[in-house]
Amino acid sequence: MSSYNYDEEFIFRTEDIKSKDLANIFVETKMDRDNLNYLKGKSPVLLEGSRGTGKTMLLRVAEKELDDDFESKRELAVFVSFSKAIFVDATNEITHFRNWMFSKILFALKRKLEKKGVALSNSGILGKYFTFVVNKDEIIKKLDEFIYILENSWHSKSKGDFDQISSLFGVEPGRVGVLKETDYFKALVEDICEGCEISRIVLLFDEACHNLIPLQQREFFTMFRDLRCPYISCKAAVYPGITSYGTFQSFHDAIVQKVERDITSDDYLIKMREMVKNQVDSQVYKIFEQNGENFNTLIYAASGNPRLLLKSLFIASEDLKSLKTNTVNSTIKNFYRTNIWNEHTKLGETYNGHKKLIDWGRWFVENKVLSETLIKNDKRVIEEKNQQTIYFAIHRDAPEVIKQAVRILQYSGIVSLHTEGTKVRTEVYDRYQINFGVVLASESKSTPINRYKEIITGLSVKIYTEYGINSPAYENTESLRDISTEFDSAAVLKSLLSASIDNLDITNFQCQTLKDAGFNTLEDILNADEKDLQRAYLIGPVKSRKIFNTAFNATIEYISG
What we know:
Elements: H1 22-25, H2 30-40, E1 45-48, H3 55-68, H4 70-73, E2 75-81, H5 95-115, H6 125-129, H7 136-156, H8 160-169, H9 182-196, E3 200-206, H10 214-226, E4 232-238, E5 255-258, H11 268-277, H12 282-290, H13 292-301, H14 306-316, H15 325-350, H16 355-382, E6 391-395, H17 400-412, E7 415-424, E8 427-434, H18 436-442, H19 448-458, E9 465-467, H20 489-497, H21 508-516, H22 522-526, H23 530-533, H24 541-560
Parallel strand pairs: 1-4, 1-5, 2-3, 3-4, 6-9
Antiparallel strand pairs: 6-8, 7-8
């Protein structure tokens, strides 16, 4: 642990962690190890989890473990981020998005081969199809130019890129199409593997379909499925809820692994505490340990989501300085009544087609599900019964709009699927779990610190509220039937770019520093660089780089979904 330099704030996103520091920060659970084994295995995998649960961390750790074993196993891990996909306007011509995806994969593959010292040659498909020279540097140069043409083809929205590619490789325009097809890419990978003695390439897709643009999602999954071959293993991090798979069948074309931490497991507290311990120095952690019940309340409220824990703990500890009872109670009330819902509401402001569903879902949870849950729990306390609940169940044959609204709640992390297809008498239901922090924040008769242990120790999956096929709780759903799932991506992007930096997942200090330097919107950040930050008072090169990189990553994540 001594090699990691602790700072005065938490790292909320894996993108802000250097590869060499991953081992010092990552805390492994049994679920994590199972997921890592799947990510490193041969079968296609979808790693499913809401924001902040640790999907990117697992992809990065899987990459590092494969890298460490490369010389002995010859399995090449290639991490590919599609976080900027929303910037690609493919409304009129989807091939532009396909080009962009292949450019990202080729760039990441070429970079990893170079890092591993694997030299490309003009043998195989490179030499058979195109007029490459023998010089390997010339091959790299041409690949670089090819990647650039693909990545930027969507800007021009013309077929001029075909002419550029044909000129680059010395082939007729009619033969250029092979460059952008999965068959070509698979043949290229096969030649690389056989020529360089690589057993297979593991493509780790991050932010693959985190924005809610179905056109892009369907195109990605088509590529994901078509790339399957003995030399390529595809893995992708996805959100639960709204995903347009197209002809891709998630439970047949891939193994679906969930990123969830069970708050009732024996090692839950230990592992979540360790995640915090790995990010602070001993003096700060001692403050948390000395206020154990306060610390534990925040850990349980996070419902196994590391980012929710770190963010709420940073607020409750008043920037890592203390952990007072009153502050913890007020933080949970504010954070899980307001902050966690902001992400959910933001979706409706950005994706107008889903706004009615999003608003109805929030109304349903706050006015029906939470109300029934609190009544059940209070009644059992009065009756001196130990069992408590944070669960509810939706009938499998409930109206589709109801299930869609619940899926968006999963996407936002407000609820999570606990048990799929559970029998309730003679009917089949899907059982969901409400975020525990949301439940605690809704308690009116007791504070979160005084109430959390009572609920946790008595938590029973056998106690839940059922919402049947035509439950009376499904009020005001008539207007939900005309929802639209397609979007004007240009309008969506314009709306996102104009958003205030107050929406970003950064600390108050970072936010104020950015504002002092004249960065008020997300577009301001994307159009600037770290040197611009040094206009702010007492911000030097080192600090400006860290703050800018954190803000840039937070901006990309906010925009990507």
